[in-house]
Specification:
about 25% strand, globular
Length: about 270
């Protein structure tokens, strides 16, 4: 057992590598049955609340979306006692009404990944986890409420289409995702991260920031353009994450995330 502990974790995505919200920082090097997580886990405090910070792509952004060890990341956070995960990320828009700078709290996903390990139960026992509603309803409601209070442009009903990456979509793919599939935002990291959190019985909320219109809009998408837009949004995200951490109840009574495995194991 690790000597480190935290109640809430932030899994920082593209452009979100800042753990300066926290004080009394220590770093934990974790190993899991699935290998090492993306980086050291930074653990600190925010007004007496123990919070862990893990950079999803590594602190120097060296791990591409398809190369992230999602199982090790979630397992390591579970090991230190995390019961809630806040997951900021960058996404593209598939909907003309969702514009760069908007904050999206998705309520559904569609999985177009191809070769990612999506379960901790690869042998010995079979787990059919329910992801009919893949995100914690309590965390989603609190996040949306706080965004409205801050007057941030926020949408709390959207389907996140997760692709394998690391390449961006072709125009034909982008139009297909938008016109046939009917998704509203597109990214590369939500799946299997949120699925594994559900298997670990951890509450999980996705906090997605739109950085660009995907290529259906006949506009070029570039990594540098995405990072530039993220820098404009970073203070909104920092504020929202801080307020969310302070608002989360200590007990988990308003969701069923903590008993997700009850009827899932065969």
């Amino acid at each position: 057992m690790t000597k480190h502990s935290a109640d809430i974790a932030i899994i920082g995505g593209t452009g979100m590598y800042d753990s300066t919200l926290l004080t009394n920082l220590v770093e934990a090097k974790m190993s899991t049955p699935f290998g090492h997580p993306s980086d050291l886990i930074t653990i600190g405090e925010l007004e007496g609340i123990k919070v862990a910070f893990l950079p999803r792509h590594g602190r120097n952004h060296t791990i591409p979306p398809h190369g992230i060890n999602y199982r090790a990341n979630i397992w390591a956070l579970k090991e230190i006692g995390v019961t809630r995960i806040i997951s900021p990320s960058a996404v593209g828009s598939l909907d003309s009404s969702l514009v760069p700078g908007d904050i999206i709290i998705p309520d559904q996903f569609i999985d177009f990944t191809k070769k990612r390990d999506q379960t901790f139960y690869s042998g010995g026992r079979v787990c059919h986890i329910s992801v009919a509603d893949p995100f914690c309803p309590e965390l989603r409601d609190i996040t949306a409420k706080l965004a409205r209070e801050q007057s941030f442009p926020c949408h709390d009903h959207a389907t996140y289409l997760c692709i394998e990456g690391p390449r961006f979509s072709t125009r034909a793919e982008s139009k297909y995702y938008r016109e046939v599939i009917g998704a509203q935002i597109i990214g590369m990291t939500l799946v299997p991260e949120c699925v594994l959190a559900r298997e670990a019985e951890i509450c999980y909320v996705s906090l997605a920031t739109i950085t660009d219109f995907d290529v259906w809009a006949q506009r070029p998408v570039s990594s540098q353009g995405i990072l530039a837009q993220l820098q404009e949004n970073i203070e909104k995200i920092r504020t929202l994450i801080k307020e969310l951490i302070l608002e989360i109840p200590r007990s988990r009574k308003a969701c069923s995330c903590k008993i997700s495995l009850k009827d899932a194991l065969v």
